[in-house]
């Protein structure tokens, strides 16, 4: 029997610390009461479960899984499930709070949650992943529910895992409940457009930021860190809008070509190469650290948190950062980036396209209907652009960064909803 120990919690530069620093700054500007501060800060519910799973070699491994429901003030909680070796409870707490703020920024009727399991999907077979996901679903039967808490994919998970979750949940309830999870395969009630939705929202946010900076997409260059769901779709859709993608990366390294990389070709290469860009020939191999410092107009961190810190923020040359990942910039880098005059479209705005189309999926499941792709794209693009404009206006009004403005918009919305609900007891 083996116990898979979760990643240790770092004292500093951890996502929870970064989230709290921005939250505190926004709360100060809004002048929120002490009572409200703690109502918004403390997660509504946190669950940790031990998950014994029989591995292919017959050995039992015990994994630790989490679900944190940060808030249900705006509606049932919503947020993805992450499978990654670095998962720990603090990371999930930060990610859950970001979901609350994200749903509020794009104005969808959800609270925020996140789940995670400390595991390494790259070292697990499909059968092991399935047993782990089913064990997690059973452990969370009382937490999940189409009117309570609705999971979705995040790093290391996708439609396949969501299908297992839906199946296990439905079996336990004795009926098909497809609205319990979003990001499902199309045949199980998944929505058209969900797979590419987060990358599409990144593209819409990038174009909105470029317009403010008067950058012509046809003359602009970009580098994208992370080539999974968000990074590959973000890069592809930006390229379709005329942007030259000079850099791409995954865990194997970064790939640079100043004349531009054909993103479709890179995706085909990755798909045929066991999911990795390793050995990609149409570009020079550089490091992920070098990719962040490339002389490009737009930088899209779309891999993981805390990749831009006070140690490397000074090297960034991009004029615009569009945060595809959750928490890619640690709070210690904010001042440096602001002093350099770099515009940052923050995570809780830039990557909200995914949860927006998840919301559409949930609505379609509940009314038993399927919308066409052009309708979904039109609506989600509109919602992303409206959210960008609202955050931009708020930043002008308060003289603050887009990041702080996004927190102000979100916290104000959740706090005033709480007051209207009369929840002071
Ligand atoms: N999926 C979604 O709808 C949403 C995702 N997000 C956020 O976007 C980010 C990415 O998620 P998603 O695309 O779904 O995840 P995936 O697992 O599909 O992809 C993650 C990508 O990041 C790469 N990566 C991991 N670590 C590093 C590193 N140290 N340096 C460079 N690249 C690295 C991975 O490389 P490799 O494959 O080689 O391991 C992979 O290409 C996460 O922060 C997630 O929370 C936010 C909103 C919605
Ligand atoms: O699609 C969803 O419901 C949530 C996606 C997610 O986890 C995120 O936006 O970080």
UniProtKB/TrEMBL annotation:
InterPro entries from the entry? Aminoacid_DH-like_N_sf, Glu/Leu/Phe/Val/Trp_DH, Glu/Leu/Phe/Val/Trp_DH_C, Glu/Leu/Phe/Val/Trp_DH_dimer, Glu/Leu/Phe/Val_DH_AS, Glu_DH, NAD(P)-bd_dom_sf, NAD_bind_Glu_DH
Keyword Ribonucleoprotein on entry? no
Keywords on record = NAD, Nucleotide-binding, Oxidoreductase
Question: Which residue ranges run through the membrane?
Answer: none
A GO term for molecular function: nucleotide binding
Q: Which residues bind NAD(+)?
A: 198, 229
* Record: active site: 114 (proton donor)
Q: Where does substrate bind?
A: 78, 102, 358
CDD domains recorded for this chain? NAD_bind_1_Glu_DH
Give the family per the record.
Belongs to the Glu/Leu/Phe/Val dehydrogenases family.
Tell me the protein's name: Glutamate dehydrogenase
């Amino acid at each position: 029997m083996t116990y898979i120990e979760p990643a240790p919690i770092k004292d500093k530069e951890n996502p929870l610390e970064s989230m709290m620093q921005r939250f505190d700054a926004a709360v100060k500007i809004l002048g929120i009461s002490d009572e409200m501060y703690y109502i918004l800060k403390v997660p509504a519910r946190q669950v940790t479960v031990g998950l014994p799973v029989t591995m292919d070699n017959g050995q039992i491994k015990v994994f630790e899984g989490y679900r944190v429901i940060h808030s249900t003030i705006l509606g049932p909680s919503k947020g993805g499930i992450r499978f990654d070796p670095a998962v720990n409870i603090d990371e999930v707490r930060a990610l859950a709070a970001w979901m609350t703020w994200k749903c509020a920024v794009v104005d969808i009727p959800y609270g925020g949650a996140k789940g995670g399991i400390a595991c390494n999907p790259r070292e697990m077979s499909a059968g092991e992943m399935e047993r782990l996901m089913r064990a997690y679903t059973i452990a969370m039967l009382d937490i999940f529910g189409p009117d309570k808490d609705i999971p979705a994919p995040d790093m290391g998970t996708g439609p396949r895992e969501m299908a297992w979750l839906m199946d296990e949940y439905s079996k336990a309830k004795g009926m098909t409940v497809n609205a319990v999870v979003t990001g499902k395969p199309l045949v199980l009630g998944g929505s058209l457009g969900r797979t590419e939705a987060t990358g599409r929202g990144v593209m819409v946010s990038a174009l909105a930021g470029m317009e403010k900076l008067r950058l012509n997409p046809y003359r602009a260059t970009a580098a994208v860190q992370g080539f999974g769901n968000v990074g590959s779709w973000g890069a592809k859709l930006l390229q379709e809008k005329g942007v030259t993608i000079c850099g791409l990366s995954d865990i194997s390294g970064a790939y640079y070509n100043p004349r531009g990389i054909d993103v479709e070709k890179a995706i085909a290469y990755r798909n045929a190469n066991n999911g990795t860009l390793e050995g990609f020939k149409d570009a020079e191999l550089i490091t992920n650290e070098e990719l962040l410092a490339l002389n490009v107009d737009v930088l899209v961190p779309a891999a993981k948190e805390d990749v831009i810190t006070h140690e490397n923020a000074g090297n960034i040359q991009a004029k615009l950062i569009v945060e595809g990942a959750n928490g890619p910039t640690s709070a210690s880098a904010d001042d440096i980036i602001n002093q350099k005059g770099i515009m940052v479209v923050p995570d809780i705005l830039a990557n909200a396209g995914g949860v927006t189309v998840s919301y559409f999926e949930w609505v379609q499941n509940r009314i038993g209907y399927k919308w066409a792709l052009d309708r979904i794209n039109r609506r989600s693009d509109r919602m992303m652009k409206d959210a960008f404009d609202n955050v931009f206006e708020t930043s002008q009004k308060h003289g603050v960064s887009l990041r702080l403005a996004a927190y102000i918009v979100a916290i104000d919305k959740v706090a005033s909803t709480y007051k209207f609900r009369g929840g002071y007891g």
